[in-house]
């Protein structure tokens, strides 16, 4: 699904279905938003249905509306065998199955196979994979890897030895962990546990129309793009993220990377396609991935972004993930606004957010 941006976000109001005319309109268009708000029965068949039921549409004069399944059954109607209105909606069933699979992944010592997860959900292997990715935004394998990465970080912080941390995180051998440790942590486990000791992070500070800009990168890609008024504060912020890392001043080649970033800030039409070293929870990475799909010159809302990743009720969590982004511009959290169009907060200042949006809108 493509995220549709708009320069002037507007609030959309869901139908309330307070009158019979509204309810009939919902039934006529098989509106899923009406499911749960009411039910309808058909006198000639003796059954009651959800508004979204795919059964052949009844005549209006044969239809009655009910507030609940119980009301319809007390009136003498039986549940439709096609839409099964007395059972959880299909979307709810799928969400519950995926939530159960997530709990299984999180609690398992060994990552369950796709077949095991699909069997537990009562779905085929292919269908489960599709449903899981649709709802969470990531594959079961990616979710398990992100959760395992979280556990490794937690264990490295509190375990006496790296070996204890490896087994505490659920790995059954040192070799298996070390084979993928750089992908999990962005560096060796020893370096991570020691606050980045030995990890080489190149950086350089430049100036642009928005003030000072710091770009930092590991061998994996750009790890931070920070904006501010004071270059020294930006360097200290980088040091706080990796207090014992080897911070290396960028050479001429690295300064060209910084120039590319500055060029994009000044002229968004140039585009910015850089490898990123993105570290965060599975949820944060889903949000950041969706952010990168918002076209320059457009905006979206926190509500739409939450819906985009399949978590429409997680608006606050989405906003928090945006605020946690440490890679300005490349992960364009500045393109997210409130439902009323207000710019809201921005890690590097609302004025910078406004300037970026205005610049992109006129490019």
Describe the 3D structure.
By secondary structure, this protein is of the alpha/beta class. It folds into 4 domains: about 20-80, 3-Layer(aba) Sandwich (DNA Methylphosphotriester Repair Domain); about 90-150, Orthogonal Bundle (Arc Repressor Mutant, subunit A); about 200-270, Double Stranded RNA Binding Domain, CATH 3.30.160.70; about 280-360, Winged helix-like DNA-binding domain superfamily/Winged helix DNA-binding domain (Arc Repressor Mutant, subunit A, Orthogonal Bundle), CATH 1.10.10.10. Helices cover about 45% and strands about 15% of the residues. The strands form 3 sheets. The chain has a 4-stranded mixed sheet with strand order 3-1-2-4. Strand 5 and strand 6 (about 210-220) form a beta hairpin. Helix 6 (about 140-160) runs antiparallel to helix 7 (about 160-170).
In short:
By secondary structure, this protein is of the alpha/beta class. It has helices spanning 20-28, 69-74, 90-107, 114-121, 125-136, 140-158, 162-168, 174-179, 181-185, 189-193, 231-241, 252-266, 282-291, 302-308, 315-324, 350-362, and strands spanning 39-42, 47-49, 63-66, 78-79, 200-208, 211-218, 221-228, 246-249, 300-301, 336-337.
Q: What structural keywords apply?
A:
single chain, 363 residues, alpha/beta, DNA Methylphosphotriester Repair Domain, Arc Repressor Mutant, subunit A, Double Stranded RNA Binding Domain, 4 domains, four-stranded mixed beta sheet, 10 strands, elongated
Distance between the termini: 26 Å
CATH class of the largest domain: Mainly Alpha
Number of domains: 4
Helix content: 40-55%
Give the CATH topology of the largest domain. Answer: Arc Repressor Mutant, subunit A
CATH architecture heading of the largest domain: Orthogonal Bundle
**Order of the strands making up the biggest sheet:** 3-1-2-4
Overall number of strands? 10
Order of helices and strands: HEEEHEHHHHHHHHEEEHEHHEHHEH
């Amino acid at each position: 699904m493509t995220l549709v941006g708009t320069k002037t976000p507007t609030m959309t109001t869901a139908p309330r279905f307070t009158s019979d005319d509204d309810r009939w309109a919902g039934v006529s268009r098989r509106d899923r938003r009406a499911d749960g708000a009411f039910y309808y029965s058909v006198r000639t068949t003796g059954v009651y249905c959800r508004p979204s039921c795919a059964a052949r549409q009844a005549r209006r004069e044969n239809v009655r509306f009910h507030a609940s399944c119980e009301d319809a059954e007390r009136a003498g109607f039986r549940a439709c065998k096609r839409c099964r209105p007395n059972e959880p909606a299909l979307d709810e069933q799928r969400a519950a199955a995926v939530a159960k699979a997530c709990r299984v992944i999180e609690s398992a010592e060994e990552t369950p196979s796709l077949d095991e997860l699909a069997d537990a959900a009562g779905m085929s292997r292919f269908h489960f994979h599709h449903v899981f990715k649709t709802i969470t935004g990531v594959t079961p394998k990616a979710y398990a890897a992100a959760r395992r990465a979280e556990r490794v970080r937690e264990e490295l912080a509190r375990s006496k030895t790296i070996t204890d941390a490896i087994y505490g995180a659920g790995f059954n051998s040192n070799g298996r962990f070390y084979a993928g440790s750089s992908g999990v942590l962005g560096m060796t486990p020893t370096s991570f546990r020691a606050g980045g000791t030995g990890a080489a992070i190149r950086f350089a500070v430049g100036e642009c129309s928005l003030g000072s800009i710091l770009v930092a990168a590991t061998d994996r890609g750009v790890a931070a793009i920070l904006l501010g008024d004071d270059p020294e504060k930006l360097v200290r912020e980088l040091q706080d993220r990796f207090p014992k890392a080897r911070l290396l001043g960028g050479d001429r080649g690295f300064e060209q990377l910084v120039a590319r970033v500055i060029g994009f800030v000044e002229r968004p039409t140039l585009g910015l396609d850089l490898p990123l070293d993105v570290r965060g929870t599975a949820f944060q990475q889903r949000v950041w991935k969706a952010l990168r799909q918002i076209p320059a010159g457009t905006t979206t809302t926190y509500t739409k972004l939450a819906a985009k990743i399949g978590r429409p009720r997680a608006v606050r969590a989405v906003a928090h993930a945006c605020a946690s982004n440490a890679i300005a511009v490349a992960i364009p959290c500045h393109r997210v606004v409130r439902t009323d169009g207000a710019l809201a907060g921005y890690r590097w200042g609302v004025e910078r957010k406004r300037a970026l949006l205005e610049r992109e809108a006129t490019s």
